[in-house]
Amino acid sequence: MRSGYKNFQYSLKLLRYLNQKEKNYGLSVVGAELNKEEKALAEDYGVFDQIKVFSNVDMDDLRSIYSNSLALLYLSKYEGFGLPILEAQKCLCPVIALKNPASIEIGKDSILYLNDDKEESILDVIRAIKDQKSQEKILKNGLKNAMRYDWDASVKKLVGVYVEYQNNE
Question: For a disulfide at 48, which of 42, 84, 145, 158, Cβ 3.0-4.6 Å?
Fold first, then answer.
């Protein structure tokens, strides 16, 4: 569900704010279709027509969505790991997030952080993404960050933990 800690309402507020200030922004949502409450909320914010939902996407489609997006808007208030951050960065998609323990731990300084749920802070972040010199740095740092998490190495470490545990029993 996108409500609560996923912060969908704040995404809608940001979309409304951006379109009031600069126009022509949209929101791509990957996951289940919007429920009745989410549709009503989007209508209330006047952004329903700027939302496109992608359901049941495979990895190729997901990579295409990331690669063709201005940024991943990752506004969860808390998460366990933050895998979408790494997926987006591997696809050279900048990440915009709230500062929370998971996003800070996973993304460190490779993420563009919003300032405490203040809608105005999105403009500075968008301008940084659109500035060519800044964008190059953001993408480079994001890719470098994503490469810190190699799945093969992670699996080997996990197997090593299990083997060590088994040997110590």
Answer: 42
The tens digit of pLDDT for each residue in 98-140 reads 888 888 888 999 999 997 668 888 999 999 999 999 999 999 9
SS3 content of the chain, % helix, strand, coil (to 5): 60, 10, 30
90 touches 32 (CB < 8 A): no
3-class secondary structure per residue, 32-62: CCCCHHHHHHHHHCCCHHHEEEECCCCHHHH
Among residues 26, 25, 43, the alpha carbon closest in space to that of 34 is found at 43
Q: Is the dihedral of CA 112, 99, 88, 154 positive or negative?
A: positive
Distance CA 81, CA 103 (A): 8
